[in-house]
Design goal:
There is one protein chain. This protein is mainly beta and 217 residues long. The chain has a single domain (30-216), classed as Porin (Beta Barrel), CATH 2.40.160.20. 12% of the residues lie in helices and 70% in strands. It has one helix and eleven strands. The chain has one helix spanning 2-27, and strands at 30-50, 53-60, 63-74, 80-91, 94-97, 103-123, 127-146, 154-174, 177-187, 193-194, 198-216. It is elongated and about 65 Å long. It starts with a helix and ends with a strand.
């Protein structure tokens, strides 16, 4: 009877330990999907050039980024998480102003596509501290209207490649639901959109602070 009792205790302890380990794995393991929104701060610059004259307008503008992300995470040892992700987001950021008079120039930060990987460490079975990095593809659009009809109206957009790095903290809410707060820095390199009379550019840096809510399957 003592042997049976001791066996039962050992089995129970083994099951409890296994269940605890499984909880850690499942907390940050598997496919996921999320919605994202937050602060977006690209530095937008616009230039109008005509007959040798050059007038510039710049604005360090802030706005809201919004979108979604899908990903897959793998926790090989219940302590470290390795994952991959892809996302799509838009932005409300735009700068508009008068250049020569009786005209209007607007530069808009458009959609942004991301793909990359992240590595993190699990804390207390409920929190994940991680760093991330990967590829970015952004878009900028330019719209110029001359109300005196001296210069032609223009509307042009261009996509451009870059990279992003960042980090954040993710918390398990329960039942596969998680919340995440992260900072992302993006560098697009030299970016410009040009027509016969317009040159618009998105400065090579962009900063974002984003909150996300998602579900892990």
């Amino acid at each position: 009877m003592k042997i049976v009792a001791m066996g039962a205790v050992v089995a129970a302890a083994f099951v409890s330990t296994s269940a605890s380990a499984q909880d850690i794995v499942q907390t940050f393991n598997g496919p996921r999907i999320e919605l994202r929104a937050g602060w977006d701060n690209p530095d937008i610059r616009a230039t109008l050039q005509d007959a040798g004259n050059r007038v510039s307008q710049s604005a360090d503008k802030s706005g809201v980024s919004y979108g979604g992300e899908v990903g897959y995470d793998f926790s090989p040892d219940n302590k470290m998480v390795i994952g991959a992700y892809a996302g799509l987001e838009g932005s409300t950021v735009k700068a508009c102003g008068e250049l020569y008079g009786a005209d209007r120039l607007c530069v808009r930060a458009g959609r942004n596509i991301t793909a990359g990987a992240r590595v993190g460490v699990v804390l207390d079975q409920k929190f994940l501290i991680y760093g991330k990095g990967g590829y970015s593809n952004g878009r900028v659009s330019v719209d110029y209207r001359d109300y005196e009809f001296i210069l032609p109206d223009e509307n042009v957009g261009r996509t451009f490649d870059g990279f992003h790095v960042g980090g954040g903290i993710e918390a398990s809410v329960g039942s596969g639901v998680y919340g995440r707060l992260e900072y992302v820095y993006t560098n697009y390199g030299r970016v410009s959109a040009e027509t016969d009379v317009l040159t618009a550019s998105l400065k090579p840096t962009r900063q974002q602070v984003v909150y996300a809510m998602g579900v892990r399957f």
